[in-house]
């Protein structure tokens, strides 16, 4: 008898389970399912868990469920526990819901962010035009490798301890990517022997783990010649060429 009841329940839930992300799912219902924590941030490969209280008083425990794309869900009355031994999905989903008396579904989706810290960060400079002289322009490039999600990354450029600027990505990919961030700066002999570098920080919001989420690059030195030195070198080259021509 119990088996028949369970089968009937599953059959009755199938239309709703098929359309969890569709219009049949009401996220504005009065007695909405509540997740704890309300958002989830987890490093790729780590274990993680969350709880859902399907309802406070407006549902029966046999009308509740937790639909997940990875891991396992275990029910204890109106409380449902979700556990993942190793988070190996970059865009996981978890939807807690129950069936109301009128046959509609009341649900809540748990926002999950799966992140991967940069594999490495590399800084280098490229001269865009002209000579290595005062007034020429450099592009400082900060290469960030294997980071996810890159839209949560802030890259900061430094000259010594001075912040030159910050950049973010518009890439919404959930999987790891390698991306170059470029900042333009004018060359000056004033900063010869000054080290340039960058760091990449993951901004994961108030739920971010209590660990270092900043990766730093190595240091890069840009040497700039003054216009006077360059002019002297040019005059020396011309003088040597003229002397060689006269000797012939």
Automatic annotation (TrEMBL):
Coiled coil: none annotated. This is Uncharacterized protein LOC103374852. It comes from the Eukaryota. One of its GO terms (molecular function) is integrin binding. Residues 1-19 form the signal peptide. One of its GO terms (biological process) is cell adhesion. InterPro entries: ICAM_VCAM, Ig-like_dom_sf, Ig-like_fold. It comes from Stegastes partitus (bicolor damselfish). Keywords: Signal.
């Amino acid at each position: 008898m119990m088996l028949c009841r369970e089968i009937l329940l599953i059959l009755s839930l199938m239309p709703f389970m098929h359309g969890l992300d569709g219009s049949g799912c009401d996220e504005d219902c009065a007695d909405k399912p509540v997740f704890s924590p309300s958002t989830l941030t987890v490093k790729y490969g780590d274990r993680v868990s969350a709880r859902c209280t399907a309802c406070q008083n407006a549902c029966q425990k046999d009308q509740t469920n937790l639909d997940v794309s990875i891991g396992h869900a275990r029910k204890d009355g109106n409380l449902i526990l979700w556990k993942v031994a190793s988070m190996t999905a970059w865009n996981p989903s978890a939807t807690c819901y129950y069936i109301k008396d009128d046959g509609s579904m009341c649900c809540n989706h748990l926002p999950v962010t799966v992140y991967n810290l940069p594999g490495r960060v590399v800084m280098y400079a490229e001269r865009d035009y002209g000579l290595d002289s005062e007034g020429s322009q450099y592009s400082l490039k900060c290469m960030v490798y294997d980071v996810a999600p890159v839209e949560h990354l802030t890259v900061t450029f430094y000259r010594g301890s001075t912040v030159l600027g910050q950049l973010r990505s518009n890439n919404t990919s959930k999987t790891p990517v390698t991306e170059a961030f470029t900042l333009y700066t004018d060359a000056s002999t004033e900063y010869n022997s000054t080290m340039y570098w960058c760091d990449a920080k993951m901004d994961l919001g108030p739920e971010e783990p209590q660990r270092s989420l900043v990766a730093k690059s190595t240091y890069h030195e840009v040497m700039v010649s003054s216009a006077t030195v360059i002019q002297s070198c040019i005059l020396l080259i011309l003088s040597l060429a003229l002397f060689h021509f006269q000797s012939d």
